[in-house]
Design a protein that fits this description.
- This protein has about 400 residues and is mainly β.
- The chain has 2 domains: about 190 residues, no CATH class; about 130 residues, no CATH class.
- The chain is built from 1 helix and 36 strands.
- It has a 22-stranded mixed sheet that branches. A 12-stranded parallel sheet has the order 3-4-7-11-14-17-20-23-26-29-32-34, with helices on one face. A two-stranded antiparallel sheet has the order 1-2.
- The longest helix has 7 residues.
- The chain starts with a strand and ends in a 6-residue tail after the last strand.
Amino acid sequence: MRTVRLAWKGYLLLTVIPMLGSSSVAATLYVGTCHSPSYSTISAAVAAAPPGSAIGVCPGTYQEQVFITQPLTLQGIRSGNADRARIIVPASITGGSPNWQFVPDPDFINKIAPQIYVNSPTGPVNISNLTIDGSGEMGSPSSCPPTSSSEWETVAILYENTSGSIKQVNTVGQGKNSSCGVGIRAYAAPPVIPTVTISNNSLQDATLYGMYLEAPMPGASMTVSVTNNTMTVGSQNYGSAALYYDAVSGVISSNFISTPGHGVWDYGSSGVLTVSNNTILSTNGAAGFGGVLGAGGLGGGTEAYTANKVVNYYVGLDIPPGPSTTKNNLVVNSYLGIEVGCNTAATISGNVVNNAQIGMDTVPTGFSATGKISFFSADQVQGSSTCP
């Protein structure tokens, strides 16, 4: 604080002017060399920032983990012709303590090495225009997903019980050298029911999940808006997926997904959820596991799969349980086009399966595909699996 003496009409006035990072009033702080005054690390600026502040990160490389526990905005800023602020793994990385500051996994026995960790139940945190690079991590968990308290997964950004937005962020290399990584993960637990917007991000090379959105069932939920993201996942691990979600509501739309494993793995929704206009492509030919997997979920929500394009998967589209809607989707180059899942409560219309060995399977008794699914170049329109 700095106290300034001012005179006005014979009176002595005292006014207090907040200094950088030392006030309880929200402020704009800077990190790096493109602005003065500034902090040398993102962590130092976060520690000094009053709630609600904005932190601008100059182009450059920042070798640190960042922990955020209060509402604020963290964004990379442009300086001249440069526009990349890059966060890389902590110094002297071997993949284990004390190089990482771990946090407990919120719903498994293992731990997490977050590059940015956010836990701010009192207000939103917004992150934009940053590159989060995990490719420098060395060392390897013994399994992925981790199965013991000594194992970990590397996560570029972990939101826990926090609302806010993640936009124009590039995550790259999480698990590239350590074998187990996640791009963006958001978790919610009762009584917090956050709203998270994730849009226009590029998520590259994560080896477990590109994006992982979860809330424990039953009861808790999280509202999400996941739009216009590009997700590429490099692992053929059967447990991996470009986008995995559990007990969320909202919209997952207009994303581009490219992976040799599962595309979208839907493990159940606690509310109304629309999955629409996504392009989901297997880079492993028709041996990709599942384009959109829904029938493995616990149900309980009202889900709609609408106008998605699913290409080169073993199972193109797996209809979720319960009163779901599957409409105007295109499945191309699959072994099994649409797994109906014996779901008599599903609303199905206007879908197309092109080039499949089996067009549809587990069809309820009396089911007619007319107006619901059109087949082109299918060896068998209907498989032999029967419903109970």
